[in-house]
Amino acid sequence: NAGVTQTPKFRILKIGQSMTLQCTQDMNHNYMYWYRQDPGMGLKLIYYSVGAGITDKGEVPNGYNVSRSTTEDFPLRLELAAPSQTSVYFCASSYLGQRETQYFGPGTRLLVL
Amino acid sequence: QKEVEQNSGPLSVPEGAIASLNCTYSDRGSQSFFWYRQYSGKSPELIMFIYSNGDKEDGRFTAQLNKASQYVSLLIRDSQPSDSATYLCAVRRGSNYKLTFGKGTLLTVNP
User: Fold this and answer.
1) Given the DSSP bridges, would you call strands B19-25 and B4-6 parallel, antiparallel or unpaired?
2) Rounded CA separation A79/B2 (Å)
3) Are A102 and A49 in contact (CB under 8 A)?
4) CA A81 to CA A78: how far, in whole Å?
5) What is the pLDDT of residues A64-84, one digit of tens each?
6) How many CB atoms lie within 10 A of CB B64?
7) Strand A43-51 to B85-93 pairing
8) Per-residue pLDDT tens digits for B1-53
9) Distance set, CA B46 to CA A105, B15, B35 (Å)
């Protein structure tokens, strides 16, 4: 199993550009999450999903959108990138019967200039 | 605003010593508590979780929970240089699967 994979690893965006961060898991997990981590800070939940077709907002959803058309994929869309969105983005997943353990992807480092 | 507070450190201990990491939380409805380890430039990985008051041991790691004081700690015995990392405390309210993270404590274990 590859676990949770994220692409790209690193990206530079100009202000106002858009992009999609990809997240895929091959563990058949129901729950998936997107977090952002700013330097020296903990993780903030952006969006989460409890299954295909179901998504909900976390603590810091403004400026982002998500979709969950399949169990495996949970892409995060940034529209009109702003410098405040410069961060490291982590995708995670967990299984209904084992919700204690969230498995994290390697992260995407995003720089908005 | 539900908060999880940690001393940002850095906490420096010599190899072989006990490292003690502390976390307080403001939401009395919190029921599940987690410790994640994050190496520099890497993603977090779960070390332990604890639900009940008291101690929970796993190898060199012991999690301690005191819900009355809204306090959770992580003890690392026989600290090794490979334990040098940022330790993130996270809490969850009830059956809600969303986690609230603290900012983390940077631990450095000196050989």
Assistant:
1) antiparallel
2) 28
3) no
4) 6
5) 999 999 999 999 999 999 999
6) 18
7) unpaired
8) 668 999 878 999 999 999 999 999 998 888 899 999 999 999 999 999 999 99
9) 13, 22, 6
HEC assignment per residue over B42-111: CCCEEEEEECCCEEEEECCEEEEEECCCCEEEEEECCCCHHHCEEEEEEEEECCCCCEEECCCEEEEEEC
Beta bridge partners of B34: B49, B90
Residue A34 touches partner B, C-beta closer than 8 Å: no
Chain A CB contacts of B99 under 8 Å are 43, 45, 102
Whole-Å CA distances, A9 to A54, A89, B29, B42: 26, 10, 37, 12
Retrieve residue B32's tokens. 């599940």
3-state DSSP assignment of residue A83? helix
Report the distance separating Cα B83 and Cα A44, nearest Å: 24
What are residue A78's DSSP bridge partners? A19, A64
Q: Which residues from chain A sit within 8 angstroms of residue B45, using beta carbons?
A: 104
Record the tokens describing residue A105, joined without a space.
Answer: 């992807």
What single-letter amino acid sits at B41? G
What residue type is B93 in one-letter code? Answer: R
Contacts of B44 in chain A (CB under 8 A): 43, 90, 104
Place of tokens 């949770």: A4
Tens digit of pLDDT for each residue in A29-68?
999 999 999 988 889 999 999 999 999 999 999 999 999 9
